[in-house]
Design a protein that fits this description.
Strands 1, 2, 3, 6, 7 and 8 form a 6-stranded antiparallel β-sheet that branches. Strands 4-5 form a two-stranded antiparallel ribbon. The protein contains 1 helix and 8 strands. A hairpin with a 5-residue loop joins strand 2 and strand 3. About 10% of the residues are buried. The chain is mainly beta.
């Protein structure tokens, strides 16, 4: 799904090791994708996504200043009878 917005916040890069021994870089990014409806109502739409892309702090800071297109994927997993939402960020493109 493609959404447009700005980056509100992001975490420092973390290096994680997968079960098969690979190292991945991971970040958590808060995306503000709010918009104004046709009737003029401001719609708040903020979400948190995980990304494994190697974006620099400078790139992410720049996207805090201007609008970008975010490509996100939503998934659900079940653990001990409870459901959890997972949001992944696959790409960011400048508008």
């Amino acid at each position: 799904m493609r959404v447009t917005g700005i980056i509100r916040e992001f975490t420092p890069e973390q290096v994680i090791t997968t079960k098969d021994g690979r190292e991945l870089k991971k970040r958590t990014i808060v995306i503000d994708a709010g918009y104004q409806s046709e009737s003029g109502t401001n719609i708040t739409q903020v979400f948190v996504a995980q990304t494994f892309k190697e974006y620099t702090d400078e790139q992410l800071m720049a996207w805090k200043q201007r609008k970008a297109a975010f490509y996100v994927f939503f998934d659900v997993r079940q653990y001990e009878g409870r459901y959890f939402q997972e949001v992944s960020l696959s790409n960011i493109n400048e508008l």
